[in-house]
Amino acid sequence: xxxxxxxxxxxxxxxxxxxxxxxxxxxxxxxxxxxxxxxxxxxxxxxxxxxxxxxxxxxxxxxxxxxxxxxxxxxxxxxxxxxxxxxxxxxxxxxxxxxxxxxxxxxxxxxxxxxxxxxxxxxxxxxxxxxxxxxxxxxxxxxxxxxxxxxxxxxxxxxxxxxxxxxxxxxxxxxxxxxxxxxxxxxxxxxxxxxxxxxxxxxxxxxxxxxxxxxxxxxxxxxxxxxxxxxxxxxxxxxxxxxxxxxxxxxxxxxxxxxxxxxxxxxxxxxxxxxxxxxxx
Length: 281
Known about the structure:
By secondary structure, the chain is mostly helical. Helices cover 67% and strands 0% of the residues. It has two domains: 2-22 and 105-280, Hypothetical protein af1432 (Orthogonal Bundle), CATH 1.10.3210.10; 24-101, no CATH class. The protein has helices spanning 2-16, 27-36, 43-50, 54-64, 78-85, 87-100, 108-134, 141-150, 153-167, 177-198, 203-211, 222-237, 253-258, 262-274, 276-280.
């Protein structure tokens, strides 16, 4: 662990020296999320806003036409996507598209980790939202989605910093796949909390990033419970960097706090595997 401790010190120094440009939360995605909260939003205004970023347009249309959202006809415009899927669903797709762009590295080993992390983040987002609706926490479904997508943002941050440091020869030793994995698992919650706080995102998302692994947690924080449980379901299925098929979801404190039935947990697992059509597609 000595090397990883030394590496985290180098990472902190690298960031403090401003050699690394901190990721920023996509401004268009933030405006779309705020717009979608209001029932009287203007479809034309929302679609025009999305069209300001052609990468977002391409990603939204690709996701909207994936088998997961499959309809009878092809969606060819952002306006069609909003009409068919609704503003809330489209805002979720915008957020997915905006975040997906960040999950890239120059180093092949790190790119492999980022690919697994991306699949896990999307599955946690959609799974947490699905669970919120299934358990009739409809007013919490958006918070569950965003919390799920961003809960491991600290891992993204650390991997991107390591990639930049390696490119600029700012690290004093070779960083193996195993060391990178150990580092991000040990420090991602703290780094995620710091980054989301710097983005001035609502407290609920910062706390979800910080607390999604803590043994002691707020059992009345519904979005946090949903993300924690979905996170464990993903780990059970091997969606992401971790795979632990021995996890018994029904026996977790999160399942107990949510008073969830075993059949719902089984449905969650099936649904999570289907989400890979969006993450990969």
